[in-house]
Amino acid sequence: MKRKFASLFAGFVMLAAMVFALSAGITPAKAETTYQIGTDVTFPPFEFANKHDKYVGIDIELLKAIAKDQGFKVNIKPTSFNGAVQAVQSGQLDGMIAGMSITKEREATFDFSKPYFTSGVVMAVTPNSKTTSLKDLRGKKVAVKTGTSGADYAKSIQKKYGFHIVTFDESNDMYQDVITGNSAACFEDSPVMRYAVRQGTKLKIVTKPVENGPYGFAVKKGHNQKLLRMFNKGLADMKANGEYARITRKYLGAKGSSDTSSDRTFWGLIKQNRSALLGGFEETVWLTIVAIFFATVFGVIVGLLGVVPNKFFNGLSTTLIYIFRGLPLLVLALFIYTGIPSLTNQKIPAFVAGTITLMFNEGAYIAAFVKGGINAVNIGQMEAARSLGLPFGKAMRRVILPQGIRIMIPSFINQFIITLKDTSILSIIGILELTQTGKIIIARNLEGFKVWTIIAVIYLVVITLLTWLSNWVQRRVRL
Amino acid sequence: MTAKVKVTNLVKTFGNNEVLKGINLEVQNNEVVVVIGPSGSGKSTLLRTLNKLEAPTSGDIIIDGMNIADPKTDINKVRENIGMVFQHFNLFNNLSVSENIMLAPVELKKEDKQAAAEHAKRLLKTVGLESKFDATVQSLSGGQQQRVAIARALAMDPDVMLFDEPTSALDPEMVGDVLAVMKNLAKQGMTMIVVTHEMGFAKEVADRVVFVDDGNIQEQGTPDEMFNHPKNPRLQDFLDKVLNV
Ligand SMILES: Nc1ncnc2c1ncn2[C@@H]1O[C@H](COP(=O)(O)OP(=O)(O)OP(=O)(O)O)[C@@H](O)[C@H]1O
Ligand SMILES: [Mg+2]
After folding, report:
1. B78 vs A contacts (CB less than 8 Å)
2. I want to staple B123 with a disulfide (CB 3.0 to 4.6 A). Which of A194, A203, B142, B151 is the partner?
3. What domain range includes position A384?
4. In 3-state terms, what secondary structure has residue B131?
5. How many C-beta neighbours within 10 Å does residue B44 have?
6. Residue A167 maps to which CATH number?
7. Nearest by Cα to B162 from B63, B232, B70, B241
8. Cβ within 8 Å of residue A66, ≥6 positions away
9. Tens of pLDDT, residues A372-387
10. The ABC transmembrane type-1 domain covers which part of the protein (chain A) (predicted)?
11. What is the C-alpha separation between A363 and A3, in angstroms, rounded?
12. Are both A376 and A292 inside the same structural domain?
C-alpha cells in the first residue's frame, strides 16, 4: 500500500516539474538585441491599440524610432501601468515607457532617461457643471487614475482644497465616474484629456495645464544601463532630425489622430473590433481549457491525498487546499507572475503564469469537492470492500470513486464555469484575453458601456456552450 | 486441535473510552458462536477487530495461525478467508448483484470472469435469488440485499464468517429468509461468529453462546446453560429484558 502513495506523490511532483519545465521551455531565449518593454494599455495618445489592433501612440512610435536608430529591437508588452511597474522591478521586463512622470519617489527604484515629454495636469468636468475652478471642489469627490501625475497632483492639493479622492485603474472608468455625477471632476495629463474629449467623452477642460514631472523612459535601478544610454542617444537624434516633432504633431495637432468618424452602433463596434474580439475570445477559451486540464489533474491528486489512510498526505492535502483556496486569485496571479521571477531570476510568460495561477486556485476548489465527494460515499461501502480482502487502492477505484464521481459531477461543471470567468482576472498580468481586449478597445474609443455589453454577451455565449458540453458529457459518461 | 480463532487479552479503546477490556475467546473449527449483550457493550467492536476493521489497541488475535495484531501480517490475505456480513448490507451501489459477488474473486485473481460468474450463479441459488443475477442493488428488498451480501461474502470461499446483527435492519417478514440461509451455512459446517438479538436463532443453531457486557465476556456456555440456567446476574437481567417483551 505504501508504494501506492509513493507513486501518487511522485505523480504530483512530476506534475509540478512539468509545469516548471513548460514555463522554462516557453521563455524566449534572451536575444542580444531584443528588449521586453512594458507599457500601459489605456493611455492614449501615448499608447493605445488602433482600430487595426496595432499598438500606436507617441511613446510607441518614439521608442520604435529610437530602437531603429540605435540598432536594437523591442518587444512591446501592454500590461497596465501598475503591472508594468511590478514586472520591471521583478525583472520580467527590461524597461517601460508609459507616460511615466519622473518623480523623486520613483527614482528610488528606477533609473530614468532624459525627459522626452513635458506635460501638464488639467481638470475636467461635465459640460454644464458648476465646478469650474479648484476652489469649487471643497467637500466634493475627485476621480483619478492610479499611477498618473493627475493622481499625484490631486494628492498634493487635496488638503488645500478639501476634496475626496476616488481612484480608478482605467481612464474610461474615471471619466464615467465624472459623467455620471459621482465625482465632480477628474485630473489627467492634458494631452490624454484632450484626446478623450476629441473621442467624444462628454467632459470639458476647465483649467490651464499645471506643469508636473516630465515623462521619462524607465529601467530598474542599476540594470539595463546600456539600453538607457541608447535611448538617450536616440532621443537626441530624433529631436535633431525632426522625427520627434513629426510624431508629437501627429498625435497632438489640432486634427490629431482620432477615431470619431467610425460607426458607434453595437454592430459597428463589433465589425471594427472583430479580429481583436476574436483574438480575445480564442485566448480566453484556450486559457480556460488548459487551466481546467491542469486544475483537474492537480485537484484530483490533492483530493485523493486527502482521503488516503496516511496522516502526512492528509495534512499536505489540507494545507494545499487551505493556502490556495485562501489566497485571492488576483494576489496569487501577481505573486506568481512578479514574485516568482524575482526569487528565481527566471522569466515566466504571462500565459504560463496564468495557467499556474488557475491550476492552484481552481485546483484547490476541485480538491475540496473531490475529497468531499469521496467522503460522502457511505463508509460501509469501503468497509465491505476491505472486508473482502480488496486493498485500499482497488476498493477506491472499483467501489468508492465511481460513486464519488457521480456526486462530484455537478461541482465539476460548476467549477469549469467559474474557471472560465476567473480567466478575466488574469487581464491584470496582461494576458490578452477577452476582458483585457475589452479594456484596450475602450481605451481607444471610450465606449465603455457598449463594449462591456458586447464582452458580457460573449462570456454568456461561451458559458452556455460550456454548460451544454458538460451536460452532454455527463449524459454520455453515465457512470 | 488448534482453535480457528484465538483472541487473547484483547483491549480496544476509542480515545479515553475503553470499549473492550481484555477479551479472551477461542472458536473451534465448524463451531457456531453467538454473541449477545446489551447495546453499546462492545459486540460490534469485538467482531470488527477480528478482521481489523478496527485495529486492536493491545492483545493478540490469531486466525488460522496468523496474528492479525502484528503489523507485518498482510491483512488483505487474511481477510480473504474471513467473510463479513453487515447490519446494513453494504452492497456496492454502483454494481449489479452479480458484479457485487464477482468483484473480489476477479479483482484478487482467484477466479477468471467465466468461473466467477458460474460461482456467483451457484451462490445466488443457495440464497434463493438465482433470478436476480443481473438486477441492480436498488431494486432489491432489504432481505434480498442481505442474502446477496451473504453470497458476496461466501464468494471468496472463506473459512470463517462474521455476522453483525444481520437481521436487525430488516422488516420482520424478511428475517426468516436470512436466518434460513444462515442455518444452512451452519449445517454445512461453516465456522461462524454471529452477533444477534435473535434468541431463537441462538437457541437453535449456536454451539456456544457468549454474553458480552461492559467490554468483557461475562458468561459463556451452551444455549441450554445460558438461557435456562444463567448464573451471572447481568445475564439474568439481560435475558429478562429481551425475552419478556
Ligand atoms: N469508531 C468509534 N469511535 C468512537 N467510539 C466508538 C466507535 N465505535 C464504537 N464506539 C463506542 O464503543 C462502544 C461500543 O460500541 P459497539 O458498536 O461495539 O456496541 P454494540 O455492542 O455493537 O452495540 P449495539 O448492540 O448497539 O450495536 C460504544 O460506546 C460506542 O459509542
Ligand atoms: Mg453493534
Report:
1. 389
2. B151
3. 2-26+272-478
4. helix
5. 19
6. 3.40.190.10
7. B63
8. A230, A231, A234, A235, A237, A238
9. 999 999 999 999 999 9
10. 281-470
11. 25
12. yes
Contacts of A326 (CB under 8 A, 6+ apart): none
Range of the domain at B125: 91-158
State the cell numbers at A59: 511613446
Q: Which residues surround ligand 2, an ion (CB under 5 A)?
A: B 44
Cβ neighbours for A293, distance < 8 A, ≥ 6 positions apart: none
Search chain B and give the residue with CA nearest A394. B107
| Ligand sitting nearest the alpha carbon of B212 | 1
What gap in Å lies between CA A177 and CA B90, rounded to an integer? 63
For the residues A294-314, what does the mean pLDDT come to?
A: 95
- Residue A252 domain flag: yes
User: Would you call the peptide bond into A78 cis, given omega within 30 degrees of 0 as the criterion?
Assistant: no
In a domain, B100, yes or no: yes
Ligand 1 residue neighbourhood (C-beta within 6 Å)? B 14, 17, 19, 37, 39-45
Instruction: Specify the ligand 1 atom closest to the Cα of B54.
Output: 1
Q: Which of B10, B13, B14 to mutate to test the pocket of ligand 1 (most atoms within 8 A of CB)?
A: B14
User: Smallest Cα–Cα separation from A420: which of A331, A334, A326, A291?
Assistant: A291
Domain count across chain A? 3
DSSP readout, B179-234? HHHHHHHHHTT-EEEEE-S-HHHHHHH-SEEEEEETTEEEEEE-HHHHHHS--SHH
Å from A334 to nearest chain B CA?
Answer: 44
Phi and psi dihedrals of A191, rounded to 5? -60, -35
Q: Are residues A82 and A179 in the same domain?
A: no
Task: Output the CA A258–ligand 1 centroid distance in Å.
Answer: 80
- Count of all residues that appear for chain B in the document: 245
Residues A87 and A189 grouped into a single domain = no
Give me the residue from B88, B94, B104 closest to A388, CB to CB: B104
CATH, residue A341: 1.10.3720.10
Whether the Cβ atoms of residue B33 and residue B72 lie closer than 8 Å to each other: no
A309 to chain B: which residues are within 8 Å by CB? none
Statement: residue B133 has pLDDT above 80:
yes
* Nearest neighbour of A390 by CB, restricted to B94, B104, B155: B104
Which pLDDT band holds residue B212 (cuts at 50, 70, 90)?
Answer: very high
The CA-atom distances, in angstroms, between B96 and each of A121, A245, B152, B218 are 77, 83, 12, 43
Q: Write down the pTM of the prediction.
A: 0.76
- Per-residue pLDDT of A215-249, as tens digits, reads 999 999 999 999 999 999 999 999 999 999 999 88
- Residue A444: per-residue pLDDT: 72
